[in-house]
Design brief:
The chain is of the alpha/beta class. The protein has two domains: about 140 residues, Alpha-Beta Complex (Aspartate Aminotransferase, domain 1); about 230 residues, Type I PLP-dependent aspartate aminotransferase-like (Major domain) (Aspartate Aminotransferase, domain 2, 3-Layer(aba) Sandwich). A seven-stranded mixed sheet has the order 4-12-11-10-7-5-6, sandwiched between helices. α3 runs antiparallel to α11 and α4 crosses α11. The longest helix is centred in the first third of the chain and has 20 residues. It binds pyridoxal-5'-phosphate. The site of pyridoxal-5'-phosphate has 15 residues, from α5.
């Protein structure tokens, strides 16, 4: 065990089962550990570093902003935040943004907004949010209550009330659960932590119809699937519907902590000054980074690269012995193995110099940077093939 790992074991709360590797630098699709070994990063820090490690444009934007102004709080106006909100409203089709610090806090904002909207429009009893089994919405208490994974919830009860889950892709179950107390329905279009499982397009359309009929806020948690990860800026944009409220986070600032909750004007106006706040949210440095990420994705045609490399990965993975099928969209893919050995295969991949992770006993997740090249995909496939043996 290296000295960094030993020191970590002494002083850091042991909430993670970390993989025994210490990274010291990164460039593009590649990471280097403390021994000098190089790894092709097909996980990007859990679908975060989408425009590549040490991206020069992001670094330049952050450095310039650091030299100019780092923090003033939300008591005042700053330009990078407004620019980012302009980008996000233009790209999402939604009208207003609240900036948070991560996925969980973006979802907290979305849940609070749905509650405020429900209670303002339909009365005090309207505050419940329905989510899906196997969903993942975060680790704060409210987002944990929203998360459809009882194992993660069990040790933290009692959780905040007002949440319940129904099975995904079952519109009758959702319709049966909806009642006058339902303010929102929150879904991921592609359940990332739940195993890289895309929801059916017909189901998503039916959820939209149900929410319209019953006047319920449809919230899309695009924390993992947003910002180009599935080949469109936001995941719903290739699925034929629009949410009322949506969140994004992970890839938004390429590794700096940020989250965003976006909403239509009609929903957003339920928040009044004083209803919600954060000290750091939407700070100039992280927003400058996000503005650079958006410029990078746009100027380098990375949505197109995402879709092309996705096809290359799919075809390549499906041809490998030991892979039964491939799930997912864009560059959020799950290689479903023929047996429950995803953990062992991810470990073997690390040995080969390829970073992926197991999201289910039989499923390995690939979330490479959107900048990955065709040559790098070939390397990833070769190394994964070797790991499968
Ligand atoms: C869909 C989804 N929502 C929310 C979260 C929580 O985000 P964070 O870890 O930034 O709080 C995650 C994290 O994996 C996620 O995948």
């Amino acid at each position: 065990m290296s000295s960094v790992m030993e020191r970590e074991h002494q002083v850091v709360m042991q909430t993670y089962g970390r993989t025994p590797v210490t990274f010291v630098s990164g460039e593009g699709s590649w990471l280097t550990d403390e021994t000098g070994k190089r790894y092709l990063d097909c996980l990007t820090g859990l679908a975060v570093v989408s425009v590549g490690h040490a991206n020069p444009r992001v670094t330049a934007a952050v450095t310039a902003q650091m030299n100019r102004l780092v923090h003033v709080s939300n008591l005042y106006y700053t330009e990078p935040m407004v620019e980012l909100a302009e980008h996000l409203t233009r790209l999402s089709g939604l009208d207003r943004v609240f900036f948070a610090n991560c996925g969980a806090t973006a979802n907290e904002a979305a849940i609070k907004l749905a509650r405020r909207w429900g209670q303002t429009m339909k009365g005090d009893a309207c505050y419940e949010v329905i989510t899906l089994d196997d969903s993942f919405h975060g680790r704060s208490l409210a987002t944990l209550a929203a998360t459809g994974q009882p194992k993660k919830q069990a040790t933290f009860e009692p959780l905040p009330s007002g949440f319940s889950q129904v099975p995904p892709n079952d519109i009758d179950a959702l319709a049966a659960r909806v009642n006058d107390a339902t303010a929102g329905v929150m879904i991921e279009t592609l359940q990332g932590e739940g195993g890289v499982v895309p929801l059916d397009v017909d189901y998503l359309a039916a959820v939209r119809r149900l929410c319209d009929e019953r006047d319920i806020a449809l919230i899309v948690d695009d924390v993992q699937a947003g910002m180009g990860r599935t080949g469109t800026w936001f995941s719903w944009q290739q699925l034929g519907f629009e949410p009322d409220i949506a969140t994004t986070a992970k890839a938004l600032a390429n590794g700096l902590p940020i989250g965003a909750c976006m909403a239509t004007s009609e929903k957003a106006k339920a928040f009044q000054p004083g209803d919600h706040a954060t000290t750091f949210g939407g700070g100039p440095v992280v927003c400058a980074a996000a503005n650079a990420v958006i410029a990078e994705i746009t100027d380098r045609g990375l949505l197109t690269n995402c879709l092309e490399r996705s096809d290359q990965f799919r075809v390549g993975l499906e041809a490998l012995d030991g892979v039964r099928s491939v799930r997912g969209r864009g560059l959020l893919l799950g290689a479903v193995l023929e047996s429950d050995r995803a953990g062992e295969v991810a470990k073997a991949a690390l040995e080969q110099g390829l970073i992926v992770n197991a999201v289910r006993p039989d499923t390995v997740r690939f979330a490479p940077p959107l900048t990955i090249t065709p040559e790098e995909v070939v390397i990833a496939l070769d190394r994964f093939d070797a790991a499968l043996v």
